[in-house]
Amino acid sequence: MSILVLWAESGCRAMTLNSVLLPQLSTGQGGRAGVHSYLRRRRRSWVWNQFFVLEEYTGDEPLYVGKLHSDVDKGDGQVRYVLSGEGAISIFSIDEDTGDIHATKRLDREQQAYYTLRAQARDRNTNLLVEPESQFIIKVQDINDNEPRFLDGPYMARVAERSPVGTSVVTVVATDADDPTYGNSARLVYSILQGQPYFSVEPKTGVVRTTLPDMDREMQDRYLLVIQAKDMIGQMGGLSGTTSVTVMLTDVNDNPPRFPRKSYQFSVPESVLVSAVVAKIKAVDLDAGLNAEMDYRILDGDGLGTFRILSDPDTQEGLVILQKVLDFETKSSYTLRIEASNRYVDTRYLSAGPFSDTATVRLLVENVDEPPVFSSFVSRMVVSEAAPIGTDVGSVSAHDPDTFDSPVRYSIDRQSDLQRYFDINSSSGVIRTNRRLDRELNVLHNITIVATETLDPTQVGKAVVLVSVADVNDNAPSFAIEYQTFVCENAQSGQVVETLSAVDPDEPENGHQFLFSVGAEAAWNLSFTLRDNNDNTASVLTRRAGFVRQEQPLHFLPVVISDGGIPSLSSTNTLTVTVCDCDVHGSRRHCSQGAELPDGLSTSAAVLLTCILTLLGTTLRREPLLMGDERDVRENIVCYDDEGGGEEDTEAFDMFALRHLNQMQLTSCDAIESLPPPPPTGTLESRKDKNRLFQEFIRDRLKEADLDLAAPPYDSLQTYAFEGTGSAAESFSSLNSLSSLESEQSYEFLREWGPRFRKLADLYGHHEGGGVASGL
């Protein structure tokens, strides 16, 4: 067999490959040794492991890495060496004749630590492999070319003030990109360059610790440290890196509060309002945060009940607050002894002394011009509602509290007495009634009295006067509700059809006591009677059995209700009873037509409605019945028997009278004389009555239009004197028209315009026989 004998080392750690052929022993039968012979078949005769090359080579020539050689190569140039893999050609080159490998570029182990390549030996003529392909590694050997780096720096750390020596503050960590497995290039040592003698750092671990006791935050609260990390175990020539560490001392409550001064003095106007801040003091605490929070309290002094003190949570000031009204004329100064103490105390530092301090505060009251002061801010008075105008209700009194003692003038704030029910004497303050009072309208009057100094009108004081109006019996009782009473046709005698109650706006002291009775005018009423129940109610009972709706649908019963006041007042109320058809249970089924009242319709309205219906029935009996066609004409105001002939027709009435109603004041005789000769179809007396009725109707409408502020700005009388234009129906006037017998125009289209034009269609339309309708 043949093997490769590696390698002769050069100064650059390159390797050369030398081939040596070894004879192979063959054995014969029986295990006897045979002769030495060379095998025809060759095994692989070149192998290698790896090459080494230094990083960061800065020479001008390519760096020799190693040499490839096969024992097949006889040196005759028939073997060609080929290199492939990572960095082949771009970084590493090979001499295909000699197999020498060179690095053509500068290598950096921190970017790539090794390269894997493949080597081939080929026949130059046939380009066939003369040896199997082999793989080898070129490893980049490290040098100390990277300094340590603090990837997490700069650092911020906190430690409590007055911490003991050796207290851990922070741990710093540096990294080195060099190979930690080769040499000391990545072995680091920490040291402190700045921050001594207060802090130190452990060389191997990078832990920063305190080295001095009793560091005071109030003296220095911030320290800047510079920490160094050096490789090569700190030896000379090693590379180093630095970082900064900012150490903040946190506060502990090691300082008591102290007042800068032992006494304070403030001036306070006597007009200052209660709950106002009149003074501010502040004790100084060198600590911070919760450790500097303070509470203030008044220990003693002559202002304990007049003032109190609170701590401002934002500024830690002591706020002196007024609790009572000040009066310079009564007391002109106050003295307080105030203590300030820490809210939170650290018992470790109590040995240094008490964590509190005291100071004296003197408050001087300043005199100011004060407004008048009433003897009572709220006064209550009572007056009868029957009191005549000018009755004294009561009086108020105010004075100037200042030493000047200015006279005071009284008045009523009219915003509180818009109706001017009361008046006041400007000098004496006596309040009198100025109008009649009505307790039922206003039981309590809340008026404001104003007192003004005569020497200084800007000084004004106010007080409230509550005037209660005492009740007198000045209202008569009435029905409590609007009753809708009914009685069945089959009602029996003595049956209760309604229970009445009453109300009275007055309020007697002992309560209401109503008496019910039937009015004297109801003596003829044989249908109903009234029974007083002696409990402020009364029952309405039938006096007979059987009622007939057709004969009398409504019955009216006058009820007299009197109160028990002094003097006693009474009123007559009419109860309307409707006759209804009822079932066997007494429930109404049908009531008299027109007698069923809707909800909310009063009895008086029912009586009035009944009277109107009665009068209307009488009128309808006197007037002739209208035909069905005439009922559809809704616009008729006055019905007369003459057929009008248009504006030129003066037989029915004089158009001049319509145009000049305000100027014409005709007597009955003048009206008769001014009328045209009567037509043969009517009499003079009926014509005069209808003309007068029409004139009065127009005159009444004129007056209403003149008094109506919301009426449109035109005279509605124009519609009677002039015919309008622009109508789609064209003119209906008989002016310039042919006679009814000569006209060939058809008026049948009027029937298509609806019921409003039906009368005109009947007047002007042709009958089926061809005649013209004439007459209403």
Describe this structure as you would to a colleague:
- The chain has 776 residues and is mainly beta.
- Among the domains are: 50-141, Cadherins (Immunoglobulin-like, Sandwich); 149-250, Cadherins (Immunoglobulin-like), CATH 2.60.40.60; 263-366, Cadherins (Immunoglobulin-like); 373-470, Immunoglobulin-like (Sandwich), CATH 2.60.40; 478-591, Immunoglobulin-like, CATH 2.60.40.
- It is 9% helix and 32% strand.
- It has seven helices and 41 strands.
- The strands form twelve sheets. Strands 34, 36, 39, 40 and 41 form a five-stranded mixed sheet that branches. It has a four-stranded mixed sheet with strand order 3-9-8-5, with no helix packed on it. A four-stranded mixed sheet has the order 10-16-15-12, with no helix packed on it.
- One of its GO terms (biological process) is cell-cell adhesion mediated by cadherin.
- Keywords: Calcium, Cell adhesion, Cell junction, Cell membrane, Glycoprotein, Membrane, Metal-binding, Repeat, Signal, Transmembrane, Transmembrane helix.
- It is a single-pass type I membrane protein.
Structural class: mainly beta
Named at the architecture level, the CATH assignment of the domain at 478-591 is: Sandwich
Q: What is the rounded Rg? A: 64 Å
Number of helices: 7
Provide the CATH top-level class of the domain at 478-591. Mainly Beta
Quick one: CATH superfamily of the domain at 478-591? Cadherins
Quote the beta fraction: 25-35%
Overall mean pLDDT stands at: 78
By CATH, the topology of the domain at 478-591 is Immunoglobulin-like
Give the overall shape, derived from the CA principal axes: elongated
Biggest pleated sheet: 5 strands, mixed
Distance between the termini: 156 Å
Organism: Stegastes partitus (bicolor damselfish)
Protein name: Cadherin 7
Domain Cadherin: 70-150, 151-259, 260-374, 375-479, 479-600
GO molecular function: beta-catenin binding; cadherin binding; calcium ion binding
